[in-house]
Amino acid sequence: MKRTVGDRVRVEADVFGDGHDHVMAWLLYRYVPRDREAGPWQQVKMAALGNDRWAGEFAVAELGVYQYTVAGEVDHFETWRSDLEKRIAAGQEIDIDLLNGAKLVEEAASRAGATDAKELRRWAARLKAGDAAAQEAALDDALLALVERFPDEAKITLYERVLPVRVERERAGFSSWYELFPRSAGAIPFAHGTFADVEARLEYVAGLGFDVLYLPPIHPIGRSFRKGKNNAVTAEPGDVGSPWAIGAAEGGHTDILPELGTLKDFQRLRQKAEALGMELALDIAFQCSPDHPWVRRHPLWFKHRADGTIQYAENPPKKYQDIYPLDFESEDWEGLWKALHGVFLYWIEQGVKIFRVDNPHTKAFGFWEWCIAEIKADYPEVIFLAEAFTRPRVMERLAKLGYSQSYTYFTWRNSKEELTEYLTELTQTGVKEYLRPNFWPNTPDILPLSLQTGGLALFQARLVLAATMSSNYGVYGPAYEALEHEPLRPGAEEYLHSEKYEIRSWTWDEKRPIPQLMKKLNAARRAHAALQANEHVVFHETDNPHLIAYSKQTPDGEDTVLTVVNLDPYNTQSGWVTLALWKLGMDEDASYEVYDLLSEERFLWQGARNYVELNPEKMPAHVLHVRKSVRTEKDFDYYR
Q: What is the pTM of this model?
């Protein structure tokens, strides 16, 4: 289970006993500090929900690990009190019953401290009196609460497991990522960019409202079997190769590509980003070019073919001759694991606290379980994003092993039905407890088919969906702003002139439509707590299949944001949106204002059913702040 600092953890459990005796349930929790014994158990009495279901919750205030479990006990005193009420209602004699109750109270006194024991014995004496006052005392809620504070621990049943909660910092649950290639950030078109060039772009990215700047690998790039433009097998003179072919004579995973600058330059970039409210996220790709120093020093860390040569990466029929995968089942697996763990530690020591991990599903699960736990024990503030576009159970397993965030299938969910089903799965099922989605409409690896033909309107719609459906989202920024949509070949989800293999020259102009929309969306996300979490998502009915409507709301209901998106990038779509007002804490005939955070228009709505029309040539979406204040007829006339 994952939470962020300040969250509350709600736990439900089935707690029951044999016979007709009543039971009570307790939620036990404690914080587990680093390098110290776990603190004492704190307990919260759980509330009965009916049919043997109980619920309780606690707050998490510290980074690190909390533990929780559940305890149950037969509640003899409450059972006695319930039976007594029935006997009184039936007009039966209760003298002996009052004495039985006094005995239970005295037993509780024997388990209490001196002050409470004295108070309990006074209650017991009142019950023994057997008069009308004794009957009144027996049914006093204050007596029930006092007795239940001192259960008989010898008779308590503990759940057989102690369960962990990993508590991370706020950015693990709420973040906006912007990805760019440093080598394409140069002021001179098509000249190799540097960290200093990226530094010059920081105010631009921060001005768009992003708080994480993600850089692909910044390490030396191999020369052997270097790929050319458009993934050509043979590189031409001057081709820069793929940053993911890591390692050359200049070094490996803890070294920097000389063309980008020095470690000092990197530190200056990181510090300036932080001064602007952003963090740098680095790509960690555990694979090596044939020129990586590890290939010569540690040949056992790689798989060998029958002819004795090292096996390069393949996904038949595709071949990646410029990359050697690591062998996690190597005879020297311990040495390999420690070296990889050391890569993280090196960059953490340089001040990096966010890592996007390339293809973690192709590495040993056991390694991630060990490595992430080791790092989190000393650096609980570190955040890991899993770039694992793979099978659902594998993605879920990586999340359970410690990944803070996960890439998702959002990139390929396009229809109203697909989006509704997928977001419901991520936010309303057990998956929500441990897998935090990070929605990306594009990546350097993926140019979705939808973006290849939809034009500006579809780019806008997908950006709105990503930013409002998920509290964590990201975008491969320069390409998205430029509306890059030409595939390598028809039907392929790869970019023509992919930046993975060549330097590109981009226009950095915040006045263009996509940067303007980014700025507005990120401002809305920062201003509205409803968009900063995923727990309270509600889909609302529309009578047009091209219109999707959904809302997010804070737990207290104080902040509500409703998003309506036209999924048709070519045509104006209109229809009636029917809000589930009861889920939003509003009366069915309420009148209320909705304020569009994108267009800054205000509309007065009344009741559940309201009309929406979205022209994709203007803006294919509304992001509406729902203001629940009641308006007068004069206001109605003004808005009409």
A: 0.93
